[in-house]
UniProtKB/TrEMBL annotation:
It comes from Strombidium rassoulzadegani. It is found in: Cytoplasm, Cytoskeleton, Flagellum axoneme. Keywords: Cell projection, Cilium, Coiled coil, Flagellum. This is Dynein regulatory complex protein 1 C-terminal domain-containing protein. It comes from the Eukaryota. Residues 136-184 form the Dynein regulatory complex protein 1 C-terminal domain. It holds the Pfam family NYD-SP28_assoc. Residues 11-45 form a coiled coil. GO terms for biological process: axonemal dynein complex assembly; cilium-dependent cell motility; regulation of cilium movement. Transmembrane segments: none annotated. One of its GO terms (cellular component) is axonemal dynein complex. InterPro entries: DRC1/DRC2, DRC1_C.
Amino acid sequence: TEYIGNNGREINKLREQISFFNLKIQQNKKECEERNSRLKKEKEKIVYHYHKLKRTMNQTREKEEKRLGDLTMNSKACMDTLKGYQKLGEKILKTAELCRKLETEKEKVLPFYQSDEVTLEEMPEINVEKIEGMKKQKYNEFQLLDNFYKRYNKVLLDKLAIEKQKATLEKENMFFKSLLKQYLDGVSVNDDVINSNNPLLVVNSKVNLNRPPVERMEGQPHKTFVEGNTVINNISLQRNANYN
């Protein structure tokens, strides 16, 4: 009986230990599951942030590569433009040296014309701050080109004056060619000249030359001047025509 009682107590003790360990196992299992759940969520967050950071890095790398490519292309274009400006500047300097040889003494001493003081006083003062889109610094930079535009405008005016004078001389040249042709037709003998009016034939103190009327200048006396060489040449031509 005592042996059975001891075994019963031992069995109860073991049962209590088993219950305790089962409870401990349940507690540890619950704690481990909670810990695993937290670790899994933390892992998912880390993976998400990793992919997000990787995606951001790739986008940033692509943007930087694109910016680097644009910067390289713009740098090359800028260098080409600067080289073009350099060539243009060298060409301008060479042209200026060549043009300086053709300048008059006055232009060499005073390369820029002097502005009229009266005109400057009459011009209103420019308020740069009121000009839309214009900064004072930019305006001052543009003022550095005043001397260039002075020379450019002077050359442009000279060019226009020369073109006008050229047109006038060409018109006079055509007129004198026409007179010369009429004169040569008058002193030569051929069928066309005989059948047409002789421009040198004087009828009632009038010639048949096709020429515009002579305009008299106001205040000038009515005087006709003939150069001696012209008279001698005309006489020689008439004599040669008569002898022939």
